[in-house]
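User: Predict the full complex structure for these chains.
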Amino acid sequence: MSLIIIAALPFLGALLPGLMIRAGRDACAWTTASVTLTALVGLLVHAPAVMRGEVIQYQLEWMPLLGLNANFFLDGLGLLFAGLILGIGLLIIIYARFYLARQDPMGQFYTYLLLFQGAMVGIVLSDNILLLLIFWELTSLSSFLLIGYWKHLPEGRQGARMALAVTGMGGLALIGGMLILGNIVGSYDLTVILENKELVQASPHYLPALILILLGCFTKSAQFPFHFWLPHAMAAPTPVSAYLHSATMVKAGLFLMARLWPVLAGTPEWFYIVATTGLITMVLGAVIALFKDDLKALLAFSTVSHLGLITMLLGFGTPFAAVVAVFHIINHATFKAALFMSAGIVDHETHTRDIKRLGGLRHLMPVTFIIVTVAALSMAGIPLFNGFLSKEMMLDAATNTVWNGNPWILPALATLGALFSVAYSFRLIVHTFLGPKRTDYPAKPHDPGFGMWASPALLAVLVVLIGIMPALMVGPLVAVASGAVIGGDLPYYSLKIWHGVNLPLYLSITAVVGGLILLALHRPLDAAWTKARRPEAKVIFDAIVGAITRGAHGLTDGLHNGAMTRYTAVFIVSVTALGAAAWFGGTAPGPTRAAIDIGVVPLIGWFLLVGATACMVAFHHNRLLALVLMGIVGLIVSIAFVYMSAPDLALTQISVEVVTVILLLLALNFLPKTTPTESSKARQWRDGTIAVIGGLAVGGLALAVLLSDFSQDSISAFHLANSKPGGGGTNVVNVILVDFRGFDTFGEIIVLGIAALVIFAMTESVLTSPVGARLRQRPINPDQAGDRHPLMMVIATRVMMPIALMVGVFIFLRGHNEPGGGFIAGLVVAIALLMQHMASGFDWASARQRFPYHTIIALGIFAAALTGIGSWLAGRPFLTSNYGYFQIPPMNKFELATAMAFDVGVFLCVVGAVMLALESLSRFAHRAGERPSPYPMDIDPSRDSAQMAKDA
Amino acid sequence: MEYLLASAIGALTAAGIYLTLRLRTFPVILGISMLTYAVNLFLFASGRIAINLPPVLLNNTPTYTDPLPQALVLTAIVISFGMTAVVVLIALGAYLSSNDDHVNLSDGPVDAQEPSK
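Assistant: Here is the predicted structure of the two-chain assembly.
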């Protein structure tokens, strides 16, 4: 199976659980498991080749200019991690089926899990570091969803937020570091980067890159001082904890350190930063773990400690230590996943995870007891279990490493860590399972069904098998994976139980004995620990986040105080100032065109326009008058378009004017009829000054444009030349709209349609709220005209309706060659329909409305889109138009262009959008209890006389 | 002509700015409409003034009006209707819900206000 399919499978599969949950929880779980299983099988098919030392590659150019390619490769390290992710993932999916309660939304859970799994597989298979970064961020996001899965728990939400904040921040640092690294090498391909160790380490940017990359790794792998998020992430359901904290999420940081080990490791900087951080984390995590009473918290800190151990080993920078790190990654994944799942079983069956409330479970839950014992003994590093082997080798590596000239500090602290590790591991066994049976468990404990303990049991078997026969079980895997980490020859090591009596064995024995003594002293130590004052990471974190939030709030509230007029004023003043700076800073050419003489008619139009504008400012407090004045302005603008050779614009402007005025009149019906004078004189002067300066600036700019020639040739000449031969129309404006710039127009009608739908939606939400009820019950204004639908107007509009529609059709049909077209025709038809609404009433008109306006908008957009797609069939780009001449006897020869089909779409969309907007507004006026009249006319003399005759 | 058109654009802009700086929704809507006229005319003017030139292709005519700004302005006019309609509805909904047509928030955060005022 191709690598990209292995990486993509979990993402594609993530769509399934949500669907399959309808078929039941079992179907959902099995579907999810089969997705993971398929990916795992696909991976294992490659295993023999990888074990032979081959590297499987898959390359796909994605954005080559950015250096971002979907390149994947699979080597030993990738195989190890991908195998862990998918293998343990499979076990977790089975376990979760039985763990999740009936009320937990299982479909969501599996979807999140698969998303996360896909992101993790992506990280370990990526050959391109930019691609790796994308997957890295995806793990942060999907783990956020997983950790916060129990949305009703505040701890879950806080834990998820904290994990996202810490790992997301680290991710940002990582992006910086990776970009620097890619820049140094000149390639974003991992395989190339890995071969350039000298180049990278000699670069002056090595240290910044290293620190940034390590920040990413340390936050992800919960290294001190970023370890605090991991225990808080334990609020997640146990399958999530088992998955994230044994094999995947936290191992991502380790993976990246191992992956980049050949390039970054081996320098003193690497040694002191990585090894020291790992050492501190290991000891600190182990100490804290001993004093945690919550089973999962204990395991969480133990995870922190073991991650520290592996980090320290990688930090040593020696090939032997790298082999041990790889080996311990395997061992830790097996025993820790088993322990987490067992902790979940204990929690599930006893309803508590508090060690102080447990004990004596040995007899009640024998199967769980065995699993936990095996896994915990391995964690403690007791012989015959796999944890022992890697711990011995770790101590061996530590004894051979000198820290700042000091040969004993590393082995001593490593032994201390191991000692605490023994103590908490035994505490887990002894305090939970041994001791007398208690009578006060929150629930009656018993072993769960096979489905639930199968997964941890399998892992426990692996723990023993690896512990007894390490070379046989994982020897080749460790060899090939370490080979990939080291990128060279493997050092001498041997995976076997007995290495003879040597220093590590003594240290091990010290750790076990010391650990048991510590456990015996646990009670007094615990009391002392509880009394001691310790810095609480969560408090510090919350304080920092709180301070940042307050700062952001202060800034936002200060700038954004809700005063719209202030924003507008600031905007206008700054735009004017910037424009002025640009104008006076540059050199504008002087006037090159002679001004055209002013005729009498334009002068009259100018006076009307400017007069209406001035009156509008002066009398805007009377809203109806202002509307009338706006109508005048619109009319003069339309006439100006005619005068300046733009008949299409004039037609559009005047029809839009009609619709806009009707719209505003409808709105004014519900708004106050006057605007009170509220601004002070000073404020009016201030606004007036801004307005005058702004007006002068825009007017001056317009004059400068008008009086100068084009600085470069306009592309209009192209449109004029190609309109007829290319687009088949002589109305160049229309051809531009439906052909040359058809894609723009397509977008515009979509925007128009969306605007209408937004209006409809807002109307719905207002009318269904209490406001709607209040509106319907408002008193009827007695001053209104008694005859709501005047007879004359009703008759006139109905007679005019077919004529108006015909005009619309005419304007549409001529549009390609003469002024007109879909926009104008749509507006004209909308006005024709609107007349019926106004004359005969909303109810009467809408009762005769066959198609909802939504449908008309949709049809319009479909028509336009299909026309565009049609040109694909001819092998041309989207919206390429074609035309031809046809003749149907006895008519004259006529032209048909595909652009006309597009124009039909424009037409329908405009009609639908205008009508939907106005219809929505008029629904505000709709009163409760009003029914459409059954008669075509409100007043019908013949009906009235018949009624009179009947009465008589 | 150029002076007339430019000064008209200036006057429309000035009126539009003044009205958008008012405190109630309706004058602000009117102001935006005035600015729309001004902007459309400005865009149109970028094709320079052409009087008595044919807007459609004819035989034997060497010069035409500039079609490109016209096409751009045409859609702008229609879109501005859609925009006005949305703004009107926002204003209407806000007024009906709160019985207040100020554009500025009153002092204090919104959720601190009493809904039944």
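Residues 67-98 of chain B form the longest helix (32 residues).
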